[in-house]
Known about the structure:
The protein is mostly beta strands. It has a single domain (3-83), classed as Folate-binding superfamily (Folate-binding fold, 2-Layer Sandwich). The two termini are 27 Å apart. The chain has 1 helix and 6 strands; from the N terminus they run βββαβββ. It has a 4-stranded antiparallel sheet with strand order 3-4-5-6, with no helix packed on it. The protein has a two-stranded antiparallel sheet with strand order 1-2. The site of zinc ion has 7 residues, from loops. This is Sarcosine oxidase subunit delta.
Amino acid sequence: MLHIYCPHCGEYREEEEFHYAGEAHIARPADPNALSDAEWAEYLFMRKNVRGLHHEMWYHAAGCRKFFNATRHTVTYEIKETYKVDEQPQQGGQS
Length: 95
Ligand SMILES: [Zn+2]
């Protein structure tokens, strides 16, 4: 059983309460109408496929129902840290 620390609830909870919600720290375009089709497609569909530390969003679906970010090692599955969406990670990574 994997336990994930929710930074909003302030405690570890069971993995089944959470849902993965995609890559973190993706810069949303300020003016989508100013983008070319290729730039828009890049924003919508292109994501990193990291082997190592990766910053990703998680959703505490069966708890506080809030989003947060996690730094997870994609090979070992170890979650190094979790932090609120408006915070910066302490651990390195590629996103
Ligand atoms: Zn929570």
